[in-house]
Every structure is written in structure tokens, then in C-alpha cells.
Amino acid sequence: MTAPAAPSEPLVRIRGLTTVLNGKTIFDAMDLDIPRGRVTAIMGPSGTGKTTLLKHITGQMRGDAGQVLVDGQNVPELSRERLFALREKIGYLFQNSALLTDFDVFENIAFPLRQHTRLPEVLIRNIVLTKLQAVGLRGAASLMPAELSGGMARRVALARAIVFDPMLILYDEPFVGLDPIALSQVLKLIRTLNETLGITSVLVAHELDAIKQVADLVYLIANGKVVAQGDPKTIANDGSPWTRQFFGGDIDGPVPFQYPAGDYAQALGLGGDRA
Amino acid sequence: MSAQPHRNVITNALAQIGEAGLFLLTLLAAVPRSLRYVRETVRQLWFVGAMSLTIITVCGLFVGMVLGLQLYYVLSIFGGTAASGTVVAIAIYRELGPVVTALLFAGRAGTSITAEIGLMRATDQLAAMEMMAVDPIAYVAVPRYLAGLIAMPLLCAVFCALGIFGGHLVGVTWLGIDNGTFWSNMTATVDVHKDVINGILIKSLVFGAVVSLIAVYQGYTTPPTSEGVAYATTRTVVASSIAILALDFVLTAFLM
Amino acid sequence: MSQRNSYAVGTGLFIVLGFAALAYLATQTTSVANTHQGASYTVEAHFANIGQLKERAPVKIAGVRVGQVSSIMLDPKQEAADVKLSIDQAYSHIPDDSIATIFTSGLLGDQYVGIQYGSSKKDLADGGTLARTKPAQQLEEMLGKFFGAGGVADNLGGSYTVKARFSNVGALSVGAPVKMAGVAIGSVAAVHADPVKLDAEVELSIDKKYDQIPDDSAAAVFTSGLIGTQYVAIQPGGSPEFLKNGDEMVLTQSAMQLEDLIGKFLVNGSPAEKKDAPAGKQ
Fold first, then answer.
1. pLDDT digits (tens, 9 = 90+) for C198-237
2. Does the record's keyword annotation contain Nucleotide-binding (chain A) (predicted)?
3. Which one of A65, A260, B239, C123 is separated from B201 by 20 to 30 angstroms, measured CA to CA?
4. Is B2 within the bounds of a domain?
């Protein structure tokens, strides 16, 4: 930890982030702050780069310009060792859980501990069982990932993400494909982790109802910029055309129904010349 | 796949070789970092090497038996069945041992390496390791590569031993070639350097290095879809087989 | 953890098995198995013909391996092959009048030197000579021929050329060895047909080391072994004059086909039966 930022500073501070992938502008001089100790939700139409944004925060991807400051360190400029040291303090919940299929549940959670520490086996066992208890799956310790349901796998992945008691957890689409019970369980876990451990949480999701229950702050991103931000309960009423379409679920609006294409009449061979 | 710019077969193959070569450099550069994952290398040696023993043993035995039988028929025309020990040993050490072992290895271990790494890519396990501050090249790719490299000569030696045994079983035990003649002709002709070192060790080390590289490379660069994994697995077998047979010719011309 | 240990044990077993197989192949199935350890002593033997005897070929007494052939040289003055035998010190009580013979193991097998004990009370010493030898028994010799096969001589010391005419060279090709007493002394430099005399003119390039070949020596085209390649064998004559560069060898014997030889052998052996057969029918 070099030069830790003051507690009042946002934990993640993105300034002027610009990223072009395959000729398509994903982020266009984006500014975004993620406050400490809060649950921040990032929403937006599909394909606007919400997951890509998480990857920029963890340094899995680098932008073409701009700063991504995490706890005072500019991620794109970190050396491999410094980046790995930073990642040990960040938990990441993958959309498909990404459990290591070679190992059982216990070893999956113990994996980061075994890789980065030389703790005695008893201590590893205690830590793993504590985390499993926290997600309610202590009894599933000896199951293989293939034997888990989607909700269980996500909770195991969550237990793995918090095994080092990180300062920041990134959730990539944590609610997708969960039944209402599992969804409530995951919601409660996110809230509990945030409240009891003070872990800063960032979630990328589409489910507005769920977000209203957990998030303190919502960013709506589209066209490579933040188009709206605010409290989840009131953001839908801020009057911008983006929020009206997104939260109203309108078919057409700033996000067009038609994928950009050439002139329709011309494509059908009905050129204007003949009219 | 379709997103790739159109390239013809030759430039495509050259690009693949070039990319695989660069990937090899990445692997070699990561070897020091993977030294802390020795356990993982040992575990992969178990999957790649020890788990291939069954197929290697059975195939080695049958190749030796077929060789013993064919040689008996051909050599008995000249009344030279005494030479069958020599011919079995030389054929197996110089060509059949390394080549058939490498082909079997590509089919058994190579495909499983490709499929495993490909699925790890498709299910974000490699990205998850990155996020847990574990370098997937050092933890996943290098141990499998090293395991393949170490396992090939050992598997080849087992194959050859079983091949000799199979040839002996058919020639001596069943068809009645004199036991002493079989061995003495073999020991009189087979040379440690030319046959055992060049054949079993050098050839199979080269084949092991190439097949493992192809398998790990194909797995690591798999498009993260289920059809991508299937495609990569097929490519491992095709590319390995071509590489083995082409390199065999080059090595034979070079070593003999 | 127990799971990890089982991998380690299994992998360890695999590695040990692999190296054991390699060590077995390298030591038990190769010529390493034939190289004996320990002290040895060297004796010489002169053979009129060594046939296909090679260096490192085994030396056996009563069928038991006691040593190996360490070198083979041609002694041009004696028209004989000088073979050095390296014998294990453990077998140091060989009578000095023992007989060394070149045997063949099987029809296509390699040749080895067998020693049969004599009756002398004196043991053969290091550097001693086995005076009594029997040359290799060649297939051609059994069928009425004289000389055997070996490797091709190197012409590093320069060579001289002599010519020989054959009515039939068989499958003799350029590069084939020229041998005397079974040892290669040169090679065939050219084979061409003479359109006038309707025979084959063969140029033999012979190593300068062997410049004392009598000029009435005979040249013959032989086959090495049953299915081997053909070569030119030189059978020394008795003239005091030696062959010089450009000379032509007058006495030649053309290639004889294996079929002819076997045919002759069978025909010669069968008359008695032929006589009997009709008699029985009558």
C-alpha cells in the first residue's frame, strides 16, 4: 500500500478514460467515482462496456488514455507485481462463477490462500469454513463445482472472492439466471458484506428492483459516458431521455431499435430514382 | 473464426507457426515464475504421463507383436529369422517407438490438455486466476508443457520396452526363434548412441516439446465458446500429427 | 492433502518406471551389453580370410563370451588379416597353441572368433600370437568359391588403377569394394561395356598401401552373403612382379549367379537318384 488516499476520497476514481476496441469507441473520456464503503451499481444498455469497465478497474484491460485510480494507484501504469499485489485486495465475482473445475469447493476457496500465503493447514481450514459459513454452504465443502446449482456456485465464488477480506468487490451480473430465492440470498449477502465488513461494492446488473434494494448509488452509462447518476429510487425520474427509455423499457429512444444500417428502400431495390 | 481477416492456407499456417513460436517464448520466460508451482507440474505429470501409460503399454505390446510376426514371415523366406531381434529393436527404437508414442500422446494427452485449457478459458477460470493474482501462464500453461516434455521420453521408453517384449513373445515364445540368437543379434547390432539416445531420447524429446506446445497453445488461444474448444482439440491432433511426421523425417536425416 | 500425495506417489512411480525402461533398453538390448568391464589382455591372430568379421565382434570359448575383437588390419606382406583380440583377464589360462576360428552364428548372423584349446602347458601371454587359425567359412567357399566380404576401404592414402575384363559383371556397380583376403583394399572406379570385345571393362581403384599385389593375381566378381551386394575379389598369384597403375589383370572370373551355383549343387547331388527312379518304375 503506497500512498493510501484519504478516507474521504473515492476508492475508485476514473478520469478521462478513453478506450477504442476494434475501431469501436467503448469509453469516450469517461469520468466516474466509486465512493468508499458504499454499494454502487453500474447499469446501461447491453454492449456499453459495463464488464469492460470492471476489467479496467482490475487492470485486465488497459484504456488508450485516461486514469483509473484505485486506492490512489493508477492501474494502467502499475508493474505486474504491483498489479498482482493490488488484485489481492480486490474480489471479483464472475458472471459464470469461474470456479476451478479441478478442485472441490473447499480447495477452490483455499486456492488463493495456498497461492499467496504459507498458513498452516489448520488456519486455512478455519478461514475457509468461516467464509463458507458466511455464504451458508459449509456443508457443501466437499462437493465438486459440477455438482453445484448456479446459485450455489455463485455463493461459493463469493466466498472465494472474500477470502482475503478485500477492500473492494466487483460483481459482474450477480443476479443473472437465479431463481427468486437464490436472488434474495445473493442480495442479502451483498448487503451483509457491505454493512458488516465495510467492503466497497460495485455491481453491474440490469435488475432495477434488485438494485433498488442494495445500491446506494447508480450510474447509467451509455455511448461511452455517464449519462445519469443518483439514488436508485429517484434516478428513473431525473427526466433525461436515457433514463426514461432505460427504466421505462421503451422500444425506441436514444438507443435505437434498428441496428445502424443503410437506406432500407435502397436495400430492397426500391431506389429513390424511380419515384 | 469468421471475424478473422481472410488469409490463405499458407499464410495462415505460417502465422500459426509464428504465433506458436512467440507463445513458446512466453512459456519459457514464465518457467522461473512457475517453479513455485512444482506441485502442479507433478500433478500434470500424473495426468499427462501416468494416465497415458495404459494406452502406451497396450499399443507398444501390439506393435511389437505385429512386427515380430511380419518379420518372421518375411525373414523366413531368406532363412534369416535369427535377425528378427535386431530388426524389431532397430525399427522400434529408431522410428516406431518415438513416432507412434508421439501420435498416441497427441491423441490421448494433447487433446485433453487443449480441451482442459480451452474450457478454463471459456468458463473464465483463467481470468479468475488473473484476478486472484495467480499468473495462468505460470500456473496452467507451463506445468502442462513441462509435464508433456518430461513424460514423452519416459512413455517412449516404456513403449519400446513393451515393443521388444511383444516381438520376443511372438518370435521366440510362439514361433520358436532361438532365445539366445534373438538377444545376441540384437545386442550385437543395436547401438546406444545411434539407436537409444538418438531415437528414444532425442526424437521423443523433440516430439514432446512440439506436441505439448501445440496442445497448450491451441488450448490457450481457444475462442471462448464450446465450438471453439472442439475446433481447437481437432487442430491439436491434426497439427501434432503433421508436425511429428515432418519432424521425424528431418530428425532422421539429421541424426542418422 | 492425501489426494495430492497420491498424485505425487503415482507420478513418482511413473518416472521410475520410465527411467527403468530406458536404462533396461540402453544396457540390455544394445552393444553396451557386450562391452565387458574390467581388465583385459590383447593377443593377435592372423587369418587368411576374416569374412564379415567386424570390430567389437565377440570372442568365445566353448560358446562363452570371453572378449571382443579390438582391431582388424590387413598385413599386405603376408596377404593375411591381422586381428587383435581383447580377452578378459579372468580367462588368462588359454594354452598358447590354441586354435582361433572365425565362425558364423546362423546363416545371416554376425561372425565371431571361437578359440579351441590346445594341449600346451604354456599360457597365452599379453601381446602373444595365436599361430594356428582357421579362416572364415564363406558361403561361396562352401559352394566352391574363395573369398568373402567386409567394408569398403578408404582411399585417403591415394590409389592406383588397374583394369580387369569380365564376360559378365552381374550386378557389380561403381563404388563396390575390391577385396583381398576379405579385407577391402579399394573400390570399383568404373564399369563399362566394350562394344568391340563384347565384354565388361572394370577399373579397380586400389589403395597405394597395397602396392605389392603380384601381377598374375586373379580378379573375380563375388557376392557377399546370400542376398548381399557384389564385389571384386583379388586372389594373389605367385609372380615376383607387382601390379602397377594402368596394368590389366589377365586372369578373371566373371560373376556367377546364385541360381547357377545352387543349380549346380543340386544337379551334382542328384544323379544317383535319377538313375534309381526309372529303375524303380520298370
1. 788 888 888 888 888 888 888 888 876 665 667 888 888 8
2. yes
3. B239
4. no
